Amino acid sequence: IYPNPATEYFYIEGPHPTVDVSIYSLDGKHINTFKHTTQSPIQTKNLPSGTYLVTIKSNDYGQTKLLIINK
Question: Phi first, then psi: what are they for 43, rounded to 5°?
Fold first, then answer.
């Protein structure tokens, strides 16, 4: 995930061109899940400043990363 901290958008880089992305608050509240193409930006305009968990999954790959949003 980059840039991190993010302001207006962030990117996901990985071995697969399309992944499932889930975003959670640090207290575990589910915010959003969507399919994403790894070369396009993910907008953060609907997320307030804070720290989030971003889970990235594909058929044979899964990882959770911390994302900081500073607006």
Answer: -70, 145
The answer to whether 16 and 38 are in contact (CB under 8 A) is: yes
Report residue 34 as tokens: 């969507």
State the Cα angle at 29 between 35 and 24, rounded to 5°: 40
Cβ neighbours of 50 (radius 10 Å): 12
The Cα 64–Cα 23 span in angstroms is 9
Name the amino acid, one letter, at 39.
Q
∠ Cα 19 10 40 (to 5°): 55
**Which pLDDT band holds residue 57 (cuts at 50, 70, 90)?**
very high
